Amino acid sequence: MVLRAAGRPLEPADLDDPVAGDGQILVRVSACGVCRTDLHIADGELTEPKLPLVPGHQIVGTVVADGQRFSAGERIGIPWLGETCGRCRYCLSGRENLCDAPVFTGYDRDGGYAELVVAVEAFAFPLPAAFSDIDAAPLLCAGLIGYRALRMTGAAERLGLYGFGAAAHIVCQVARGQGRRVFAFTRADDDGAQRLARQLGAEWAGDSRGPAPEELDAAILFAPVGEHVPAALRATAKGGTVVCAGIHMSDIPSFPYELLWGERSVRSVANLTRGDGEEFLALAPTVPVRTTVTEYPLERANEALADLRGGRVNGSAVLSIQ
Ligand SMILES: [Zn+2]
Ligand SMILES: [Zn+2]
Prior knowledge:
Blueprint: E1 24-34, H1 36-42, E2 59-63, E3 75-78, E4 81-83, E5 103-104, E6 116-120, E7 125-126, H2 133-136, H3 142-151, E8 158-162, H4 166-177, E9 181-186, H5 191-199, E10 204-207, E11 216-221, H6 228-235, E12 236-244, E13 265-268, H7 274-283, E14 293-297, H8 301-309, E15 316-320
Parallel strand pairs: 8-9, 8-11, 9-10, 11-12, 12-13, 14-15
Antiparallel strand pairs: 1-2, 1-6, 1-15, 2-3, 3-7, 4-5
Helix pairs in contact: 3-4, 3-7
This protein binds zinc ion (2 copies).
One zinc ion (ZN) is lined by residues 84-85, 87-88, 90-91, 99-101.
């Protein structure tokens, strides 16, 4: 499924089989998670994709031919961070997520809304056996980046999650497993998300525009809504952190300094490191994380994106590829 221009639906296309270059492997895709980032690309809010583009960066598939690291037949996962330069000050200081010259899967390089994809072996992950292909797909971005965002909250006990979709439904389970208390902030009328949040251990789920039920120690914003930043600061105790986990957000309205005072901080989380991936994929089966997935066949990718845009997906949307 190909994006030819922002703002246009994806089109089914027959492309030449991709060819693995040096350090790359060819992978037959079985499942690909649909991420809000894909929506930001399709809608033109992220402005520099390669075009035409095969989107998709939560890829589960089987290696077609032996590489240096993986053998034919092995199941692997391919995430958003497709490759880094290995030479910039960020790569050289353990912060490859901030690389100056990164290659992102399904943005700079064709991704997993397809039957075949190539990936740089060093940036792919073996996947825990406890997850089916479909269930594993959301771990690869929603899970990984959600986990990185959770780490940025330190030891916060009372955790607010703003937006309860693919990432939050995984983070909620990890946070509960760590003994934290979780409060889920959703659209007022989103009964499905609120119900899922309670099922997964949130002790409260309610309207993100209303007051928090009690003071929070940290908040993670998954919804791309700038108004949530001052709202979350207002809900957060002294010393608390508000983490913005999305790649794109509407403008943040100005707010009185008093909301930041008291050593509160606002920060973003960008991309992932391979270390995040290894750590989270080892942790997920021990929690154990269970993903809630709505499955769509590849050719219905536009419907999956429309459902995500309209807030109609409970948990994660995943494309299944035959
Ligand atoms: Zn770099
Ligand atoms: Zn993503």
